[in-house]
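Quiz preparation item.
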């Protein structure tokens, strides 16, 4: 007998271990083809305790790569730094496409053509071999899905499989949901704001059965803020409430704390002007620059709704940053701050291990030189 798979998360269904992936009570077997964890995620918004370890995830991702003729790398528009450059080594010698997902989070006034040009250059600078296509998509709004499918068709012979790869939470399963909804399929993958939702490989017919798309578990390489947090806290970083953009004037010696994750203090001798782009749910606090490191380390009650699981695990790194006008400092998994008017010097406190990147400003006027 061949194994039955959960249509939501791709795990092999089993009734022996309630703590393991794919558990389904014997009594509902046959009636239901989703596991208990998927059921609870879909109907009660629970995060589910079952998690794969990084080796198990890697094994499945490599298996998907081996089975596939074409790869689609899904990146998160709101976290390019944390979700895109890491793939450059893994696509060498392969036919691949890039879907920059969550494009609905870009400000409405920013032309999509401008974003596409920016992203093509971003990829050209970081990937040795260029993608067959780069497509802007939205897994919630359906934007770009038709284009993605036609680009996949161009790049892939009939009958071949396509692996959909990406970091956790970039929206791989949401894209499959959009694609299969267009084909009126009743089967749908499980989607949640918690990282680590998809646990196994699952096959989805696309282009009227011409090809098979493989959903995969997301990688969590450990250099994004969300990778260092528990699933509930990481879920707060998903931009369900949009991406907030705020303009900050920060006087010398003054600073801001973004939620409980980032401190910025003006280290120059004139007012710093910064624009912040972070998930809409996060809070901001203005404070004196000298108090920031203490606040982040000790967490006064107004700052921290303490999480016993992940707050004690964060340690803080301090860095002096000089940001030219029209450049961004991106903090993987969190968002970015952008300098606009003049060169800005500030002190930054961020959780140790999180990847930082300085890049030309993604949104708005840029240095043309
Ligand atoms: N704003 C916005 N949110 C999205 C988009 N696509 C997915 N999301 C949200 O991002 C979260 C993660 O989506 P999933 O589809 O589960 O992501 P995944 O890549 O399959 O994640 P794993 O299975 O954990 O690897 C959910 O809260 C989605 O609603 C999008 O295009 N725009
Ligand atoms: Mg998924
Ligand atoms: Zn499941
Ligand atoms: Zn937590």
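Solution:
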């Amino acid at each position: 007998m061949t194994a039955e798979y959960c249509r939501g998360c791709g795990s092999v269904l089993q009734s022996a271990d309630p703590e393991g992936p794919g558990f389904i009570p014997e009594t509902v077997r046959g009636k239901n083809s989703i596991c208990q964890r998927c059921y609870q995620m879909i109907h009660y918004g629970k995060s589910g305790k079952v998690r794969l370890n990084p080796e198990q995830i890697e094994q499945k991702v490599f298996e998907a790569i081996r089975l596939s003729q074409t790869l689609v790398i899904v990146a998160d528009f709101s976290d390019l730094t944390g979700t895109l450059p890491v793939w450059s080594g893994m696509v060498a010698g392969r036919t691949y496409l890039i879907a920059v997902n969550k494009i609905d989070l870009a400000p409405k006034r920013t032309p999509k053509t401008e974003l596409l040009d920016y992203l093509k250059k971003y990829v050209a600078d970081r990937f040795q071999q260029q993608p067959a296509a780069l497509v802007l998509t939205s897994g919630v709004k359906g934007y770009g899905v038709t284009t993605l499918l036609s680009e996949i068709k161009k790049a892939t012979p009939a009958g071949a499989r396509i692996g959909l790869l990406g970091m956790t939470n970039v929206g791989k399963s949401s894209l499959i949901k959009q694609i299969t909804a267009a084909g009126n399929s009743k089967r749908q993958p499980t989607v949640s704001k918690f990282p680590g939702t998809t646990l196994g490989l699952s096959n989805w017919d696309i282009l009227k059965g011409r090809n098979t798309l493989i959903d995969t578990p997301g990688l969590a390489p450990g250099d994004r803020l969300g990778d260092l947090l528990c699933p509930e806290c990481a879920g707060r970083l998903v931009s369900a409430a949009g991406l907030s953009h705020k303009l900050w004037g920060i006087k010398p010696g003054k600073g801001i704390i973004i939620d409980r994750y980032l401190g910025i203090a003006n280290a120059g001798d004139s007012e710093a002007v910064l624009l912040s782009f972070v998930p809409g749910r996060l809070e901001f606090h203005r404070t004196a620059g000298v108090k920031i490191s203490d606040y982040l380390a000790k967490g006064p009650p107004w700052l921290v709704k303490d999480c016993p699981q992940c707050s004690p695990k964060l340690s803080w790194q301090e860095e002096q940053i000089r940001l030219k006008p029209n450049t961004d400092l991106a903090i993987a998994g969190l968002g970015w701050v952008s300098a606009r008017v003049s060169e800005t010097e500030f002190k930054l406190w961020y959780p140790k291990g999180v990847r930082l990147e300085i890049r030309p400003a993604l949104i708005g006027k840029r240095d043309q030189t």
